[in-house]
Amino acid sequence: GAGVSQSPSNKVTEKGKDVELRCDPISGHTALYWYRQSLGQGLEFLIYFQGNSAPDKSGLPSDRFSAERTGGSVSTLTIQRTQQEDSAVYLCASSFDPPGQGSEQYFGPGTRLTVT
Amino acid sequence: QQQVKQSPQSLIVQKGGISIINCAYENTAFDYFPWYQQFPGKGPALLIAIRPDVSEKKEGRFTISFNKSAKQFSLHIMDSQPGDSATYFCAASMGFGGSQGNLIFGKGTKLSVKP
């Protein structure tokens, strides 16, 4: 079956512009995660959606970052007024989480964001 | 504060040898410990995972050893092959026991297997 897909695969933007990154999770997966992978910081958790619950935004680095998940499926990560330190690979993962417990997370290929 | 510490940062092994990567964690509330393999330009792929109620889990050439009292776990790759050359990440989460399913990753180990 299809895995997690992300678009675009690469995005180059100018400092100060807004960008939107898209994630399509595996069909039927209730949980969706965004992570950021950068050379200096490794893999960092950003935000977590589980079903219809309020998202866990505890990993978002600043208020320029936001995400939404529509209809419990597709998610969009938005970065406003991009800065050069936002340059990284943004990874999305999904899992099928029964209530009260987690399960394996499956990652997409990522979106490489470069802020010039 | 780095909650999951991974070593070594890089590792070179001869074909057929054993690759060993180690991780240590701080938070005793962690109850799920996966290992991910990542090739350049790809997302991390789940390799093998363990929960703290067992001390070892083996899948093919890959084995996780888990030491709860020492708060350490390691990945062993037996009969290492050039195709195993990749970056390996250990991780931990409280996902199986609660709602905090986000993974906390180690910094990664770049493995090179020489033919």
Main features:
heterodimer, A: 116 residues, mainly beta, Immunoglobulin-like, six-stranded mixed sheet, four-stranded antiparallel sheet, 10 strands, B: 115 residues, five-stranded antiparallel sheet, 11 strands, 0% helix, globular
SSE order and pairing:
The complex is a heterodimer of chains A (116) and B (115).
Chain A: E1 5-7, E2 10-13, E3 19-24, E4 31-38, E5 42-50, E6 65-69, E7 75-79, E8 88-95, E9 106-107, E10 111-115
Parallel strand pairs in A: 2-10
Antiparallel strand pairs in A: 1-3, 3-7, 4-5, 4-8, 6-7, 8-9, 8-10
Chain B: E1 4-7, E2 10-14, E3 19-25, E4 33-38, E5 45-50, E6 56-59, E7 62-67, E8 72-77, E9 86-92, E10 104-105, E11 109-114
Parallel strand pairs in B: 2-11
Antiparallel strand pairs in B: 1-3, 3-8, 4-5, 4-9, 6-7, 7-8, 9-10, 9-11
**Mean pLDDT metric of chain B:** 92
Tell me, briefly, the overall form of chain A. globular
Poorly predicted spans of chain A: none
**CATH fourth-tier homologous superfamily of chain B:** Immunoglobulins
Q: Return the structural class of chain A.
A: mainly beta
What is the oligomeric state here? heterodimer
CATH topology of chain A: Immunoglobulin-like
N-to-C order of helices and strands of chain A: EEEEEEEEEE
Please summarize what this structure is:
In chain A, 0% of the residues lie in helices and 47% in strands. Chain A is mostly beta strands. The termini of chain A are far apart.
